[in-house]
């Protein structure tokens, strides 16, 4: 196989095709790893997302790399990739370069719902589908942002590309957060962030994996700890809770406890939400719809902490309850892979 990253990705496609897999089209040459930038990460995706063949690829991937990438060394299967919070991977070195092949899996319920809505909206706008549910949705979008009532939609598609918010201005975050793009006849793009009836997650926050080391010692100056301190979380109680779970009897340092910083929390939630897009969530009988402009963003982001629930014998999750004038939230700091210490932070609406 060639060592050129783009050619390497193309060669990978040849050996992955029998497994119904391909290198992600958004990064055919891979990209630098999330943690170790010297590692080249290739995200592997299903060709037919409705046929989840991930179990077979995961079973075979070490042997596949050994037989197909001549000269590959230190081949290792990772139950949880160092470049993903939820997917496994195979890492190896080849010609002095470190690689990590992340095995993404089939479309989840939310992704299938998104695909159906895109198809239905295409039928509604472009083929004259008469559906009372989508008529209700479009009416609510027009009420939420009256200018929308005066335009004609020419194209509907799923948004592709990066979901990274880093470095993106708040005014432009709708272009990253949006799941669906509507193009009007002038070429203007309208973004929709779509949630199904169970879609309570608004955003992920960084830093969970840095909170503890592999010995179970809280890292007080880590990104995760700095984030929790902004919400007034008592790190002593976090450490004590995990120590109780593990029957640890270590003498721990005493960390200062600070009050929640409402200004910093507001800044966090402004980036959680972003602006200039439609938020659309399916309800049991209709749709919840609002347009996020600066006024709405201010209301969504004017957040105060109501309480913190700490880990202990019966739970390994940290819960932070919050409220704003228009929404109540729950932040969950947890392990999403059945491990002990946190690797994931999610912001959910209640």
Explain what this protein looks like in three dimensions.
This protein is 29% helix and 25% strand. Helix 8 (262-273) crosses helix 9 (294-301). The chain is flat, with a radius of gyration of 23 Å. Strand 5 and strand 6 form a beta hairpin. The chain has helices spanning 5-16, 54-68, 109-127, 132-144, 174-177, 223-230, 235-246, 262-273, 294-301; strands at 21-23, 31-32, 39-46, 73-78, 89-94, 97-103, 153-158, 180-184, 189-195, 201-204, 278-282, 287-291, 304-309, 318-323, 328-334, 344-349.
Shape: flat
What fraction strand?
Answer: 25-35%
The succession of helices and strands, N to C, reads HEEEHEEEHHEHEEEHHHEEHEEEE
Low-confidence stretches: none
Major beta sheet summary: 6 strands, mixed
Distance between the termini: 50 Å
Total count of helical runs of at least 4 residues: 9
Q: What's the mean pLDDT score?
A: 93
Instruction: Please give the radius of gyration in angstroms.
Output: 23 Å
E-strand count? 16
Structural class: alpha+beta
Specify the helix fraction band: 25-40%
């Amino acid at each position: 196989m060639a060592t050129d990253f783009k050619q390497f990705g193309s060669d990978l496609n040849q050996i992955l095709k029998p497994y119904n897999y391909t290198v992600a089209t958004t990064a055919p040459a891979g990209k630098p790893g999330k943690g170790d930038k010297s590692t080249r990460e290739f995200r592997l995706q299903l060709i037919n997302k409705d046929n989840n063949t991930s179990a077979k690829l995961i079973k075979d991937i070490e042997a596949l790399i050994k037989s197909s990438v001549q000269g590959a060394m230190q081949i290792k299967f990772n139950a949880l990739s160092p470049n993903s919070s939820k997917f496994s991977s195979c890492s190896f070195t080849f010609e002095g370069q470190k690689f990590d092949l992340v095995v993404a899996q089939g479309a989840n319920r939310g992704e299938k719902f998104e695909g159906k809505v895109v198809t239905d909206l295409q039928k509604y706008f472009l083929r004259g589908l008469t559906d009372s549910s989508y008529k209700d949705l479009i009416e609510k979008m027009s009420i939420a942002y009256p200018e929308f009532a005066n335009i004609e939609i020419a194209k509907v598609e799923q948004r592709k590309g990066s979901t990274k918010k880093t470095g993106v201005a708040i005014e432009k975050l709708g272009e990253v957060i949006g799941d669906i793009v509507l193009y009007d006849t002038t070429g203007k793009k309208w973004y929709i962030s779509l949630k199904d009836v169970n879609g309570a997650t608004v955003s992920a926050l960084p830093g969970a994996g840095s909170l503890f080391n592999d010995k179970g010692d809280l890292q007080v100056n880590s990104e995760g700890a700095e984030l929790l301190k902004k919400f007034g979380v008592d790190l002593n109680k976090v450490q004590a809770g995990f120590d109780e779970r593990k029957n640890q009897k270590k003498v721990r340092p005493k960390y200062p406890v600070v009050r929640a910083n409402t200004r910093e929390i507001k800044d966090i939630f402004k980036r959680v939400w972003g602006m200039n897009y439609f938020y659309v969530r399916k309800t049991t009988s209709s749709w919840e719809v609002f347009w996020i402009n600066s006024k709405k963003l201010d209301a969504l982001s004017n957040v105060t902490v109501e309480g913190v629930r700490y880990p202990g014998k019966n739970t390994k999750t940290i819960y932070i309850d919050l409220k704003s004038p228009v929404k109540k939230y729950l932040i969950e700091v947890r392990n999403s892979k059945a491990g002990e210490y946190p690797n994931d932070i999610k912001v959910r609406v209640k």
